[in-house]
Write a structure and sequence with these properties.
2 copies of one chain form a homodimer.
Chain A lengths: L1 E8 L7 E5 H7 L6 E5 L4 E9 L7 E5 H7 L6 E7 L4 H9 L6 H12 L5 H14 L3 H13 L11 E5 L9 H10 L4 E5 L9 H5 L9 H11 L1 E5 L7 H13 L4 H14 L4 E8 L8 H17 L3 E8 L7 E2 L1 H12 L5 H17 L8 H10 L2 H12 L16 E6 L4 E6 L1 H10 L9 E4 L6 E2 L4 E7 L2 H13 L3 E3 L12
Parallel strand pairs in A: 1-5, 2-4, 7-10, 8-9, 10-11
Antiparallel strand pairs in A: 1-6, 2-5, 3-4, 3-6, 12-15, 13-17, 14-16, 14-18, 15-17
Helix pairs in contact in A: 3-4, 3-5, 4-6, 4-10, 5-10, 6-11, 7-14, 7-16, 9-16, 14-15, 17-18
Chain lengths: 504, 504
Amino acid sequence: MIELKTKLIDLRVGKRMVLLHEKDAQEIGTLAHDWVKIASKDSKSIAFVDTTQSYLKRGEIGIFRDLYEELEIEEGSEISISTAPPPESIKLIQRKIEGKALNKEEYQTVVRDIVNHKLGEIQIAAFLLAEEFHGSTMDEVEFLTRAMVETGTSIDFERPCYDKHSTGGVPGNKVTLLIVPIVAASKLLIPKTSSRAITSASGTADTMEVLSDVEFDASELKEIALRTSGAIVWGGKLGIAPADDILIRVEHPLNIDPQGQMLASILSKKLSVGADGVVIDIPVGEGAKVTTLEAARKLAKSFVELSERFNIRLQCGVTYGGQPVGHMIGPALEAREALLALEGRGPASLVEKSTALAGILLEMGFVAQPGQGKDLAKEILASGRALKKMRQIIEAQGGNPDITPDEIHVGEQTVAIRAPCDGFVTNVSNAALTAIARAAGAPMEKGAGVVLSWKRGNKVKKNDVLLEIHAERASKLNDAHNLALTTNPVTIEGMLLHKIPEFI
Amino acid sequence: MIELKTKLIDLRVGKRMVLLHEKDAQEIGTLAHDWVKIASKDSKSIAFVDTTQSYLKRGEIGIFRDLYEELEIEEGSEISISTAPPPESIKLIQRKIEGKALNKEEYQTVVRDIVNHKLGEIQIAAFLLAEEFHGSTMDEVEFLTRAMVETGTSIDFERPCYDKHSTGGVPGNKVTLLIVPIVAASKLLIPKTSSRAITSASGTADTMEVLSDVEFDASELKEIALRTSGAIVWGGKLGIAPADDILIRVEHPLNIDPQGQMLASILSKKLSVGADGVVIDIPVGEGAKVTTLEAARKLAKSFVELSERFNIRLQCGVTYGGQPVGHMIGPALEAREALLALEGRGPASLVEKSTALAGILLEMGFVAQPGQGKDLAKEILASGRALKKMRQIIEAQGGNPDITPDEIHVGEQTVAIRAPCDGFVTNVSNAALTAIARAAGAPMEKGAGVVLSWKRGNKVKKNDVLLEIHAERASKLNDAHNLALTTNPVTIEGMLLHKIPEFI
């Protein structure tokens, strides 16, 4: 044990971490990535070690922001430090790496240590990769799901509650902005928590934020939902299943998404809001998360099996995900298209998909007869009741309830990509459209995005506009335009894809 | 692309990394763990992104030490930044995660990106775990080994060259300090590069450092080795196979050591010094890296197969690793015991093991007839030629050639652990002895360590000294003493291991 003088480091590192001079670390017999016990006047904790030869003098200890906020440590105070064994979950992750299944208590331990920032990214990566390699039994997925719920906030709406989720990957998928008001208009409670975009051009929370606030805490969400029967808010401020956010941050650079983890991620969020009936949208196609029908059916079966263990009624809708839903991509454009659809002026792909998924919930909630949910959803939409409900929700969430589609501001810097020849549209690339919309500034710049004029099978003439890019700034428009010219967001039969050699 | 003002952050993070304000990161469409292109007035690079809400103001970019040293960026200068695709190796690691083998060029790409700090710990962890899960074909181990050699320094000694390595895990394994002078005394060239302790009480480099300097660059090592036929230096300053150091730093917190990686790690170091003949010591037993004879045989076969691909003559010696080699553990104590053995006063376990392994090299180098290597090694040792050679090596490396075992300073703070009853020693715990020696201050405090009086099968009487702990400071002695009382470093038949309940 040695005594060191604290130096605060105003950097968030996502874990409890201290910085030691390399010589001091050697003296207490610890290495970077090891754990140490630290004790200040008022508090004790364990923390990760990182070492430096230059940032600190010997005898100093650097305390990163996460830790000094938690322990209320002051600059210059004395801290004693000694070696600590690794947290228990390290051995459990080791076991999972070796291919052994973990039990209920063991998942609780792992998830608790993740939430309490006792594990570093390396160990979390190891846990996720072990799930990816060995898979997880349905028992394990259940234990993981329970542990993720128990380590977070749960919201009790005191009424039967319905919910919807998409496995993702399809640009322009603004169906939640139709489903929630349709279902809420039928008096079923649907307090929808959504995410912001990580790799897409707009998450549902980003899109809804064009129309109203989306950041509410649990009690505010409850009040809004009980008042209007529906809500569309960002899940990140609610504290539900916080392990999920941490795990997703490590999944992103690894570019993996183990199926057991995906199931637990989605179900834990639904359980945390006490959902009784859930519909899962599984888009299938190139560029979507699930690429084959067979994989979608298998995934759907797993969702159903898992939900039965929690007494949740759950149905999956396998949907077409090979090209965008509707024509507009990007926060403001998607909000505009959703509002157009609520006014009865939406594209068929958006209306059909939204009402089909909403219909499943209407049947689950016994407001529609079996087999008649979609018809009822269309009726609610056509009657204007869904639009009226959406305006109530916008108002309850602090937005302008009277906004019209045209009043939604979209980026005024625009450029059109035109058809180079006559022909049929043979391909629309989800990945290219997302990349172009992001290059234009989405999701950060709400008005940025892409409007796709034609979809697969449409006949186009030379010089027809294939897509229009919107941006808020000329430099971003330029970036997006260049990207559109070098990728093939829309392919026309007969179009020259490459010239070889390129420069003649 | 945006322009930002640099702020230098004097922290080494082991990779090319920049810190962005979260809003700036969102504006250019990048997330923590993504890569960005950065361009200053004079230089360009790609770097990792981390984000902060508080450490920087918007418009500032934090440059960590690794990067600003490399690019010579100055505080306050302007840097432009734009998104960059991940390095090519990311896709290759993905392929390895999926269980596919990589080819020669692909291993080159991965190892080059590791050495150039283009991969973060998460990705390196993924690579190592993929090796652990799927294993590696012998082709892959060969490609990996070659890539590790090619990305580092190679030393050409211009003479046939012999080498030795231990897979590790046994405390007190100071055999290198006998093998090198025995082999060098026979005129074979043996320029041994060694490591410092990571989790043990003393690495060979730590032990040798008690007697002389060990930090030399490649040309200094060459000069020393050619002058005296032998050398024992720290490998860390030579720049050979630098990927290995980076990989080992990530293996440590993961607590894994994929076999293909171990093979490549050891062989790449031997290839980098141009070894023609190598003996590998594989200690087997509880607490050693390899715990069963069957596993040792398999590992030995893989070593031989791999060495054949590089035209290296290699033999493995499977040795007993269930308890310490000799009686002394800790840098100074091990140096003392080695010197005693060179003077002809060493314990049998140390002398037998060292001469057996040295004998293999003497036969390989054709200075001993087949089957007579060990006898020749013993003869060289008994004649005093090995001691004389060791004194030459110590002198060539800047130490005192006349030092006697008694002149080696060991920690003066001591405490003895005594036998609680009469009986036979039934167990000696490698792990407990290592932990006690480290608690006493080893390897940082050279004089700290443990002297073990008796080994398995010895008969002891009540109150005989079982082990003596040495430390340089009273507080460390106390820590080590407490640890010795609560673990069972030496077990005597008839000894009470636990009292239940403990406090009556």
